[in-house]
Specification:
By secondary structure, the chain is mainly alpha-helical. It is globular. It contains 10 helices and 4 strands. The strands form 2 sheets. The protein has a two-stranded parallel ribbon with strand order 1-2. Strands 3-4 form a two-stranded parallel sheet.
């Protein structure tokens, strides 16, 4: 019997896929293979420094991105395109975590969670791509910023830092900003896109919850205070302060109480 392919090797393939739709399909295939026991948790595979990207969209520095209004048809396309870009990056972030830290002494449920997150992100990308198509557009039609992978580069050697910055800061920010987007889309009559965002919003709460749960687990293993460790790691690895207003109800439901994020809030945004 041939030896099983490792989850880390499969995760590497996801990152190296340079076609956006192909990456989403491959992510879902890898998740199915993991669930069905066709992959081992094996290690010994080096993850790429950066994932492969399609030729389009043009990637720019965040400061070089054009300012866009999200009003009207063009504005809705811009909003959906920016969200699709975030979800495509989120596929890579989830599978990089599962592959890069495959050697960590963690329960299998840890890898179940992050493979599941990657599968969710792939489905989210496909849903947003379908909504772009309904508006006569596709992913790649507009430029996108190249800052999302910075979090992975900054935390590539530290699992605790990765959990703090990616699910507990970046994804938690999505809980704050998504409900107003849903309201805006419904007010514009785009109920189909609003429903897609509602699905994403619900599932992102679970992703933040997985990050918080495993962060607290690791802190317990190391005998350190989770809130203090979170503050230290975010200040060290995340550029800038956290921006209120915070969706305290959604964050709390995800296991992220105010003691984690309020001390890191940007005071200039507070009334």
């Amino acid at each position: 019997m041939s030896e099983k392919r490792s989850l880390a090797a499969a995760a590497r393939e996801v990152l190296l896929c340079g076609d956006a739709d192909g990456k989403a399909r491959l992510a879902r295939d890898v998740a199915a293979a993991w669930r069905e026991g066709r992959l081992s948790p094996g290690t010994g595979v080096s993850m790429p420094d950066r994932p492969n990207r399609p030729q389009r969209p043009e990637l720019r520095l965040p400061r070089d991105m054009p300012r866009r209004s999200f009003k009207g048809e063009r504005g809705r396309v811009a909003l959906l395109h920016s969200l699709a870009h975030i979800e495509l990056n989120a596929i890579d972030l989830a599978f990089d975590l599962a592959g890069r830290f495959a050697g960590a002494t963690m329960p299998r449920e840890f890898f179940d969670d992050w493979v599941g997150v990657g599968e969710d992100e792939a489905r989210h990308f496909a849903m947003l791509q379908a909504r772009l198509s309904a508006h006569g557009a596709t992913y790649g039609d507009l430029p996108a910023h190249d800052g999302l992978w910075q979090a992975a580069e900054e935390t590539r050697h530290d699992l605790l830092a990765r959990l703090a910055v990616v699910p507990m800061v970046l994804e938690a920010r999505g809980l704050d900003v998504t409900p107003p987007m849903i309201d805006r889309l419904r007010a514009a009559g785009d109920h189909e896109s609003a429903t897609v965002l509602e699905t994403i919003y619900t599932e992102e709460q679970a992703h933040v919850g997985a990050g918080a749960r495993w962060f607290i687990f690791l802190c317990g293993e190391e005998g350190i205070d989770p809130e203090a460790a979170f503050h230290t790691l975010v200040r060290r690895h995340f550029r800038g302060a956290l921006k209120p207003p915070f969706n305290c109800a959604a964050r709390g439901a995800a296991g992220l109480p105010p003691g984690f994020y309020e001390p890191l809030a940007d005071p200039s945004c507070c009334g």
